């Protein structure tokens, strides 16, 4: 028997994948989602880069533009003033390892492809911009996709506290897709820790200084994207089941988060995608529909699931909605400070005598 060549193995694998796709109609969302995963397994054959990949030049630009790593998961764009507002960005799930997802998720669709978070700091130097990274792989292997939402959020909460997020000023959380779920879970865990008397000063400061959350295409009520995983011999990452449609865990988180918004008077806004997400092979579909993404001060924009958080310019609708949201929070902080003759009205962490 002749040994199988590498080329033969590739052809066999491609053929098997093509056969598998015939099980699903091309016009259905299930077929679209299956194609996403099949592209991950065999790699894109078009010149379009994988969604989880970035160009080395962009990575260099990111690192050379004032960003510095504060901890394993927290990356900071330098901000001068101590009287600042911390804006923290959370990326979503990835098809593979989330290397530098805190960068690639926020790349502008302009010609330069720069990380548009810099625009916020350029327009308002009092903003300290931070982007977090975490194990967001949809595929579980020996290194990736092994942490559940509690572990991820607990780690991020502690690292944000170590980075002094919210210690001296207002905080705003911004999440794309599953990143919004992570942001809400961090809020829940901070409140739980405070209620149990664990690390009271740090959690209390963050909770009281958190002024708002902004969501880009977040599946608050789940996404059918997870359905296709049930049809494939694919070991899912620990986070995937959390965003199934009708997920009980997600419903419980939403219930708690609604109550926390009322207790701490957090403002909430977001944008949803109205365009299908296109792939190089021709499949298309909306990944997070309006019914799942709609929450509080919400608008729909003419973007797909990825371009929704990758504005092409400062005049893009999604970018302007975020800027207006930040401005409204600043106005509220100033008005509160004026009414109570305090500037600013924030909760400052103080040491506790033991």
From TrEMBL:
Gene3D superfamilies: alpha/beta hydrolase. Its main location: endoplasmic reticulum. InterPro entries: AB_hydrolase_fold, SERAC1. It comes from Marchantia polymorpha (Common liverwort). Keywords: Endoplasmic reticulum, Membrane, Mitochondrion, Transmembrane, Transmembrane helix. The chain crosses the membrane at residues 21-41. The keyword Transferase does not apply. GO terms for cellular component: endoplasmic reticulum; membrane; mitochondrion. This is AB hydrolase-1 domain-containing protein. It is found in: Endoplasmic reticulum; Membrane; Mitochondrion. PANTHER family: PROTEIN SERAC1. The keyword Translocase does not apply.
């Amino acid at each position: 028997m002749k040994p199988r060549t590498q080329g033969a193995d590739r052809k066999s694998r491609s053929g098997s994948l093509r056969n598998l796709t015939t099980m699903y109609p091309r016009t259905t969302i299930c077929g679209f989602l299956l194609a996403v995963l099949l592209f991950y397994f065999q790699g894109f054959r078009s010149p379009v880069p994988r969604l989880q990949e970035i160009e080395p030049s962009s990575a260099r630009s990111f690192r050379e533009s004032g960003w510095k790593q504060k901890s394993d998961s927290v990356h900071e764009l330098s901000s001068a003033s101590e009287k600042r507002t911390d804006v923290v960005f959370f990326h979503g799930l990835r098809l593979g390892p989330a290397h530098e997802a805190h960068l690639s998720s926020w790349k502008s669709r302009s010609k330069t492809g720069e990380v548009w978070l810099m625009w916020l700091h350029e327009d308002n130097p009092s903003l300290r911009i931070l982007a977090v990274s975490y194990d967001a792989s949809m595929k579980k292997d020996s290194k990736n996709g092994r942490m559940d939402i509690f572990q991820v959020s607990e780690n991020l909460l502690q690292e944000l506290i170590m980075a002094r997020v919210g210690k001296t000023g207002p905080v705003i959380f911004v999440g794309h897709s599953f990143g919004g779920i992570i942001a809400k879970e961090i809020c829940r865990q901070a409140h739980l820790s405070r209620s149990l008397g664990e690390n009271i000063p740090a959690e209390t400061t963050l909770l009281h200084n958190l002024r708002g959350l902004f969501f880009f295409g977040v599946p608050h009520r789940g996404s059918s994207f997870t359905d296709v995983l049930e049809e494939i011999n694919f070991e899912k990452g620990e986070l995937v089941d959390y965003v199934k449609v009708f997920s009980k865990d997600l419903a419980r988180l939403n219930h708690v988060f609604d109550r926390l918004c009322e207790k701490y008077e957090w403002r909430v806004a977001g944008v949803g995608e109205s365009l299908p997400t296109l792939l190089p092979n021709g499949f298309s579909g909306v990944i997070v529909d309006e019914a799942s993404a709609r929450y509080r001060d919400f608008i729909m924009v003419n973007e797909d699931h990825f371009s929704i958080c990758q504005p092409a310019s400062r005049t893009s609708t999604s970018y302007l909605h975020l800027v207006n949201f930040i401005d409204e929070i600043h106005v509220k902080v100033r008005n509160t400070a004026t009414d109570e003759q305090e500037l600013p009205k924030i909760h400052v962490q103080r040491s506790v005598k033991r």
